[in-house]
Amino acid sequence: MRSATLIGLALSVAFASAAQANTVPVHPYHRRAHHAATAKLHTTQSRTGTTTHGTTAHAARAKSTTGTTAAQRTVPHTTKASTKTAAARTATAHRATTVARRRRRTTTQTAGMSRRYPAARRRASLRAVSFRWASPLAGSRESLIHQNEMAEAEGLERIQDDADLNNRIAEGALVPVPVSESLRINEDLPDNRRYCRPWTADFLRSLAEAHAEAFPSSPLEVTSAVRTVEYQRRLQRVNGNAAAADGDLASPHLTGGTIDLGKKGMSRREIAWMRNWLMPLQQAGKIDVEEEFRQACFHISVYKSYDGDAPDLTEPTAVQPTTTVADGLADAPGH
Prior knowledge:
By secondary structure, this protein is of the alpha+beta class. The protein has nine helices and seven strands. It folds into two domains: 116 residues, no CATH class; 162 residues, Muramoyl-pentapeptide Carboxypeptidase, domain 2, CATH 3.30.1380. Helix 1 crosses helix 2 and helix 2 crosses helix 3.
C-alpha cells in the first residue's frame, strides 16, 4: 500500500516538474490526480508519523498553483464584464450630456432670435394666419377666359413675333405708353415692348392723373405692356406662373390691350385707393382687373368701350381690408 502511494507521488512530482519546465503539457486531469495523491500521502504520513523530504513544500506550491489557476480562470471574465458595463455607462452619460448641450444651445439661439428680431417673429405669426380675406379684385380662371373672349369679340389678334410687333407699331395700331411725372415704365422692358392699344393709353392717362392728385409723391409704374407669342413661350419655360401663349387661357398681353401696374412700394391706403378706383370700371364692363400677389401688380385689360371718364369716388365702392401676401393666391392663373 505504502509503496503504491510513493510510486503515485513520484509520478505526480515528475509531471509537476515537467509542467513547470514547460516541457510536457499537463492536462487538468493529471493535475487533479497529483493533488489527490499528495493529499492521500499526507493522510498516510499523519497516521504513521512519517514524512517525505520536500512533500510539504510541494503541496504548498501545488495549492498555490491551483489557487492561481482558478483565479486566472474567473477574474479576467469578471473584469472584462465590469469594463464593458463601465464603458456603456460612460457612453450613455456622454450622449445625455451632448443632447442636453444641444437643447440648451437651441433654446438660447431661439431666445436670441426672438429678442433680436421681434418684428420678423410677428410677421411669421401673421403669415400662419392667412387667407383671412380674399381680394375683391383677385384673379380667377373665369376672369382670364373672359378677357380672351372680349379680345376675340373686339377683333384683336395676338401678336406673333417682333416683326409682327414692329409692323403694328408702324401702322399706329399700337402707341407708346404715356410716360409722365406721375407714370413711369420699367426700364428693363425693351423699347418695342413699351407700347399698348390707344384706348389703353387713354386709361393710363386718366388713372395717373387721378392717382397723382391723391398721392403726389408716388408715381405709378407700368411693369409690363405688349408681348408677343414668341416671347410668351420663352417666358413659360422660365416662369411657372406664366400664362399660355394660345388657347382660352392665353395671356391677354399678346393683344396689346393689357398692362401691369406694379404694387411694390404702395402703402395699404394707396392699394385701397386703387381698388376703389378700378372696381366701378370693372363693374361697368370697361376693364377687367386681376390683383396679383406673386408678381405684386394690378393686371388690367382695357376694352374699346372705355371712354376716358374717371369713376366717381364721392361714393367709394366698399372693399375688403388689405390682405397679407398669402391671400388671394388660391386659383389665380398667371399672365
